């Protein structure tokens, strides 16, 4: 297995894997519409390839990917944060160390760019992902809370 930067011509392959990732996250409560976002994701994949923020695992075809970059915000911080935006390994190839290899390569690139810490997000109910990230030294830093609200339309129709 090799970890490397994909060619622009492979953006569609990575975008298709992202769609699989997004579809799978629906069972954990994700609100992302996988197929509806494919075109936007393909653009993001292309940007990440050009800016050296995307790595793929090949064996020999692409079996996983990681998207990453430095956090750029409007607030000054005491640390430079690297962000892992997406990490995915095909379901039939999990448990082979591919995710660990991708994570390690992304962390090394982020560290080389000046990151003091690396941050990522996982769906709260995705216990396998949380266990994977914990094994790699990640701990909760910030918690996002969500609540479904009643729609005004529904209230009016019921009343």
List keywords for this structure.
single chain, 159 residues, alpha+beta, Aminopeptidase, five-stranded mixed β-sheet, 5 helices, globular
Overview of the molecule:
This protein has 5 helices and 5 strands, in the order E-H-H-E-E-E-H-E-H-H. It is of the alpha+beta class and 159 residues long. The chain has one domain (2-158): Aminopeptidase, CATH 3.40.630.30. Helix 1 (11-25) crosses helix 2 (38-50). The radius of gyration is 17 Å and the shape is globular.
Write the layout of secondary structure elements.
Layout: E1 2-4, H1 11-25, H2 38-50, E2 54-58, E3 62-70, E4 81-89, H3 98-112, E5 117-120, H4 127-135, H5 152-158
Helix pairs in contact: 1-2
Described by the principal axes of the CA atoms, the overall outline is globular
Order of helices and strands: EHHEEEHEHH
What would the CATH topology be?
A: Aminopeptidase
Strand content: 15-25%
Oligomer: single chain
Provide the residue-averaged pLDDT: 94
- Number of β-strand runs: 5
**What ranges have pLDDT less than 50 throughout 5 or more consecutive residues?**
none
Summarize the structure.
The chain contains five helices and five strands. It is of the alpha+beta class and 159 residues long.
């Amino acid at each position: 297995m090799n970890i490397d930067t994909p060619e622009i011509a492979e953006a569609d392959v990575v975008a298709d894997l992202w769609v699989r990732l997004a579809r799978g996250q629906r069972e954990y409560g994700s609100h992302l519409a996988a197929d509806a976002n494919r075109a936007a994701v393909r653009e993001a994949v292309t940007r990440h390839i050009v800016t050296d923020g995307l790595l793929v695992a090949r064996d020999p075809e692409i079996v996983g990917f990681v998207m990453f970059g430095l956090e750029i915000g409007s607030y000054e911080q005491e640390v430079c944060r690297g962000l892992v935006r997406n990490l995915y390994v095909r379901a039939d190839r999990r448990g082979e160390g591919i995710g660990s290899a991708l994570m390690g390569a992304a962390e090394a690139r982020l560290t080389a760019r000046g990151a003091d810490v690396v941050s990522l997000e996982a769906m709260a109910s995705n216990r396998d992902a949380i266990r994977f990230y914990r094994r790699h030294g990640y701990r909760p830093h910030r918690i996002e809370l969500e609540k479904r609200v009643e729609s005004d339309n529904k209230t009016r129709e019921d009343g």
